[in-house]
Amino acid sequence: MDLDSGAGLLHRLTSYTPDREWDVPVDDPRVRHDLVPNDVATVPPPMKAYPSSLPVLALPQDLPDPGVPATAVLAGVAQPTLPLDAAQLGRILFLGAGVVRTATRRGINHLFRASGSAGARFPLEVYASTRGVAGVPDGVHWYDAARHALVRVGPAATGDVTTLVVTGVPWRTGWRYAERGFRHMYWDGGTLLAQLSAAASSAGFTPRLRSLFPDAAVRELVGADGVHEHPIALLSLGDGSPAVGSTGPASHGDLPPVEFPLCTAAQLAGERDSFGPPWPAGAVLREVPSSPSLDEVVRRRGSQRRMDRSRTVARSLLEWSMAAALRGVDVPHWVAVHGVEDVDPGLYRWPDLATPLRAGDLRGKLEWVCLDQTLAAEACFVAIAATSLTPLDDRAYRDVQLAAGLVEGRLHLAAYALGAGASGMTFLDSAIPELLGEPDDIAGLLFTCVGVPEYTSRAGGEPGAPVEVRMVTPRFAS
Ligand SMILES: Cc1cc2nc3c(=O)[nH]c(=O)nc-3n(C[C@H](O)[C@H](O)[C@H](O)COP(=O)(O)O)c2cc1C
Predict the structure, then answer these.
(1) C-alpha distances in angstroms, 204 versus 39, 67, 209, 307, 350?
(2) pTM for this one?
(3) Which of 222, 272, 321, 378 has the fewest C-beta atoms under 10 angstroms from its C-beta?
(4) Ligand 1, residues at Cβ distance < 6 Å
(5) 446 pairs with which residues across the strands?
(6) Which residue, among 305, 443, 332, has the nearest Cα to 14 in the 3D structure?
(7) Residue to mutate, 423, 429, 448, 468, ligand 1, most ligand atoms under 8 Å from C-beta
């Protein structure tokens, strides 16, 4: 990968090193120095806005829960196909992008969505390009998560299968993380797609995820301008050609006109003009432990801010949840084990739990690598996604970030399904080669902490009735 242009340059200039605080931009004119991170005065709106003249379809607030155990869905067990109607489409959208909790902090009302997002920035938008959904006219619709409604933004597309289009807004996450937010859009895209896919699978649809698609055509379909909003991935609700061929202009909606030129260039360098195959579904797991339904697990899911470091989890929890999370994904993972029964503490290259790459207590090390966030030491284990940058091109760079997010999203659901807690976790880029004992071109992608919760979050609410919560702050090493 060329570290002097496109996504490679973005990676290099947004890598955290110990000599610089995470919110201080690198001394390079290609990153913006004129924005103040986390400035309440410039906080972007939590979602896109459209003119009130566009047709709005309220989605049914009663969600048709198929009642399938979360573990069966994550294991890949096929489920009976339910009718695809407005309520079921609404359920799938809600279990990925719905507003489930709210909290007020520093005068800002935060809308927490069903799936996690780095720094709770929620930089994603979801569109449904519908084909034959009962009760929904064929067309391109933006999911208005606040109202649990569809706003019709464009005419019906060509293609056979109803397809969700996920886009990312760099400024919404960049407000806190600047240009590094480009990576977060893809990580968050992965966690969102993990939940959208799980919700679709549990209703018997065979979700097909594509990360290679003609960018310009998809931008035109949903009205994303390629500067303030980028397409990230497509998720079709079945086999066949995705309904994404634009037949006319889409309304662009309103986004603040703040650009990160480095992000625009990174995205543009990866643009292609053809479709790739869907991502492999992965082998079905033979073992399916019992668990609450997927819908229940999604409602309970949150990011655990504090874990009990004196507690352990069973080896079977680690093994099953990692196997489920990595179905069909070939991005390498390591596991730092702190407190897992029948596994010695140390660092392992998944799936080999027999021979540690480094043995012993790594709690302090992980805490340091995770920027003094104590969760990385309190967890029972920390899954670490990392890959060599050398063979990647600008498009593959996006894919590995997305895959790491997908694994985080599934691992998170698996942990909650099995009674544990989890949180995504960021890290010091420069520490990864030494931590893993790999060459210098190994790049960290995303960490997931899994452990025993110190408290239980309130379950999320139903459409139109999010639950008001008090934000729990994570601990930092002193
Ligand atoms: C990709 C990703 C990275 C994250 N990184 C961190 C982190 O470094 N530290 C942390 O405390 N939480 C981290 N989180 C958790 C988010 O802060 C959390 O998802 C967000 O506040 C929304 O809250 P919820 O997940 O409880 O709905 C991360 C989450 C994701 C999805």
Answers:
(1) 44, 12, 15, 35, 30
(2) 0.98
(3) 272
(4) 112, 116-120, 187-188, 191, 302-303, 373, 375, 405, 408, 423-426, 446, 474
(5) 385
(6) 443
(7) 423
